[in-house]
Design a protein that fits this description.
The complex is a heterotrimer of chains A (399), B (530) and C (261). With 399 residues, chain A is mainly alpha-helical. Chain A is built from 16 helices and two strands. In chain A, 63% of the residues lie in helices and 4% in strands. In chain A, α3 (34-51) runs parallel beside α13 (348-357) and α9 (233-253) packs antiparallel against α10. Helix content of chain C is 72%, strand content 1%. Chain C has ten helices and one strand. The chains are: A mainly alpha (399), B alpha/beta (530), C mainly alpha (261).
Chain lengths: 399, 530, 261
Amino acid sequence: MADERTQTLTSLHPWAWWCWAIGIGIAVSGTTNPLLLALIATAMVAVVMLRRSDAPWARSVKTYLLLSLFVIGMRLFFQILLGGNHGETVLFTLPQVPLPDWAAGIQLGGTVTAEALTSTLYDALRLAVMLLCIGAANALANPRQALRSVPAALYEASVAVVIALSVAPQLIESVQRVRRARRLRGNSSTSLRTLGTIAMPVLADAVERSMALAAGMESRGFGRTRGLPTKGTLPLMLVSSMVATAGVFLLLSTDFWALSLGLLAAGVTAATLGLRLAGRRLRVTAYRPHPWRARETLVAASGVLAAVAVLGLGWLDPEALSPALASLLDPAALTPSTNPLVWPGLSLPMLVVVGLVLAPIPLTRARHRPETASTRNDTRVRSLRPRAETEPERELAWR
Amino acid sequence: MAVITFDEVSVTYPGAGRSTLERVSFELPEGDLCLVIGATGSGKSTLLGAINGLVPHFTGGTLRGRVIVDGRDTARHRPRDLADVVGYVGQDPLRGFVTDTVEDEIAYGMEQLGTDPVAMRKRVEETLDLMGIADLRRRPLTELSGGQQQRVAIAAVLAAQPRVLVLDEPTSALDPTAAQDVLAAISTLVHEVGLTVVLAEHRLERVMQAADSAIWLPGDGTATCGKPAEVLAQATVTPPLAELARIAGWSRVPLSVREARRRALREDLVPAAPELPVNGTGPVVLSARDVEVRYGDVTAVRNVSLDLRGGTVTTLLGRNGAGKSSLLWALQGALTCAGDITVCGRDPRTLSAAGARRQVTLVPQTAADLLYLPSVGAECAQADAESDVAPGTTAKLLRTLGVDVPDDRDPRDLSEGQRLALVLAIQLAVRPPVLLLDEPTRGLDYRAKAELRRMIRTLAAQGVAVLISTHDVEFAAGASRRTLLMADGELIADATTADLLTSSPAYAPQMTKVFAPVPVLTPDDVARGL
Amino acid sequence: METDARRVPWAVGVAIVIGVVAFSWPLFLRPDSGMSATQAPIMFAIVLPVVLAIVLSEVAGGRMDAKALAMLGVLAAVGTILRPLSAGTAGFELVFFIMILAGRVFGAGFGFTLGAITLFTSALITSGVGPWLPYQMLASGFVGLFAGLLPRASGRAEIVLLAAYGMVSAFAYGWVMDFSFWPFGIGSDTQLSFDAALGPLENLHRFVLYNLATSMGWNLGRALTNAALIVLLGVPLLRLFRRSARRAQFVPSTQPAPLAE
């Protein structure tokens, strides 16, 4: 956090990272080829390791990996226990336990086939890699920087979030102070009653603090440039969101996919337009905004291209192509069949997709690790005195 | 050319019996540093808020009359519309911060005004240089010291280039060095940049010499304005130099030590040296040997050994960050620390919280942390139950401390001094032999400090050993007989108050500096010696 | 706090409709629609943030002044601190009672915004932004929203009402979140999983069984903590919030000085 500003110049705009990650996620959703998925996952982890930000959860890619493994495990478990079984290669058999009629006649156990397991595995793997994409976006894009680049319509909401982020550590200190004070009055129990007596002063303090904060914001001109919203922004936005939802609804429940996609696209674009209009009522400027350069466009484009490539390939009809092109592109390899079981294969387009995943590495530079937090910030010291006060000489010693 | 005009201004808050300000009128010329003086609750914050428009637009209430700032009437302009004319810095700057780094905080005000980004960059750099905080630009706000936070808060309102700066108690929580930095920055703003500054302050002795005009609020709603030397002569708020003027019979109060000294020398005022205080002969109630407090790698207190005798009052002086708070908490037994601590034969660290409280009682810096019940009566009853004493003891103790409030009053509505008295009553209900006070004078005006001095003297007369940690030298001079000096975690001096304070230029009270080399400490000493 | 009561309900009403669709999408999915169960949530993942942005921008922006925003931020901070405290123990969600009480005092729009922003901020601090976040924001927004729409009551009846709402909303939150992630948890091939070929009623039956098997404990824990916290801290908190709401709403008056005296 300390050296965020210099890194504004060298780091990528957070929305570019998100665009890239979501593009890859959409691409992943279009395939169940385990080889491709594994390659994409390795490529993403490589990008994260080389280019991650310095946010505290940037090191939590491990957590996302664990979560992905957990999802795979849970799916396999439920499949073994409750799965409908198809296919011929029986792996093992569990004793069958039929549940009573009110439980919809479900049978626990039964035969477990390789086909069923592999198809579950493929599906779970796809889900796991999609989760990993989101995790990678978290690790690479500093959310606090992303907060600075929200559209103007959400400015007030982002102010509330920034306030929450700044006040939260102060409230923690407040709790520690009040707990110490409780001990001074002689009750050091941690019963529920004591916790309640700690909670109330902290909450009252929080409410007082919000008033003082509001006075400060008001005195510094908050809301000064806020004009009246343009007439018609509200109906536009509401109608567009209903249109978009109708589009999704139709997409899911009918096969008028052209109509529903059209509705969806119209709704989303109208909504974004409405947001831009709404943002115009507030003429707040941004101090040192994060620039969007060619690099950002390229990284975002690589995600979009990957999504287009995979989804387009999936919609291609192999019979409509010439044999040479069909064998080169091999769209069927995207979803290897599990019944009967075949070994999955790789095709040229898949390698291209993996290349697109790795594209940000040459386009960005690695971050410098900032210095570790100074001990001046030690909350144990600070909680005794409401303010941290140091001597000037100490500052130099810790450079 | 008056930049602030108050015209028959009266302010009444909803539900209040009488008006807080009653027909206040004054005009403030441009470029003045104006000091607003008054006891707690006399309406200083209301006056300052009225300049900005916070009163009545933000706080509610009725404002009669007109307040005109730089040609704009606050009745027609909300505080956000006056942001480019008046910069307002409230009492606790940390609570007013909206962002989390210094640079963003300074830019915030300009963002709200829709300033062009290029101009914003320039102004941020200029403001950083002006306040001398350029090397702090990327630091998180919570990591700054009190003085630095205050300067950042001032820089943040300066970025909008206002003409008037309003500050509500900027130095009350700061140690002398930090206060000096902030006041120097404010003086630069007045003299170099040409701002008009309106400042409310309790600790007047630091600010008096820089003031060009003063407004005194006696508490009945009226206001007296004029030159500081004359206003202070009439005021009931008495910094040491004002008391000296009263004693010596001067009609104008000298505003600086130098002025007072020259006048005293001219008039040949030489008080007799006060007699040496008799050393405390009570039994040793607290004995500490080689106390060491560590937080991870940081050693906050190192090799501190001291004895406290019953019936004596001792002050612990030192810069902020020297380890005073850590030492006090360690002595109470609340911190794990190395070394021996014995209070009346027992080690407070081995006792339970309730047991330790009977031996050593601590009143922390934010005394209000100890209060959590909705009324004064409930707090007293709870204190009686906690301390195992007869019901009504705490309430009686509170009245002997001089606070007489109805039982159903919410403790949050009490003044600072009253809250401190309530906490003292609660903690003293158990009649401990040792009382530790951590920075009790923060936010107290002179009258409350005099009351506190009286309370402490009564306690000492009853045999309690009192240790006060403070950086208010004037208070220390008047309250204690023995002073300890702490720096960088170690006790570097332990002597009688008279010896220590008269021999150190940094910690000498104003009377000592005026009448050097005579070892007087307080105006009372001067009065007795003349 | 200036809240324009007329505009807020429209945006909030739309949010309710969209929320219902978003959370119950498995019921509507047809096998011939060409979308697999894994691709459908992605569609929502695109639409939901836009919808959330619209609703938040309408409620928070232009309608909330500095006091409301500061209160929002501070209460969201309180919720953010409370959330990791309960992460270890199953279902002891401490966050919701603040949303319910604040929504009750400050209104439906404030409650919705508080719910959404609390979840967002705590995601920023703890686990990062995940694909479940828009759903969580919408669901907890609803918890706050409906708390503001509860009927009038006072004194003990109010506490009972709020505690009952706390229990109901805890279960509702759990069901709604589970429902939208049901296909993810189980997959499409088991007897308990969502099958697009079956009708909505059959799927609902399967869902109930799935829910019983997996998250009943969580929901129960959440309901109990909500009710307990509301009963314990409800009265002082409601008083505190109402006091500050009063301080924030007033009609200032400035009058010129009387001429003669």
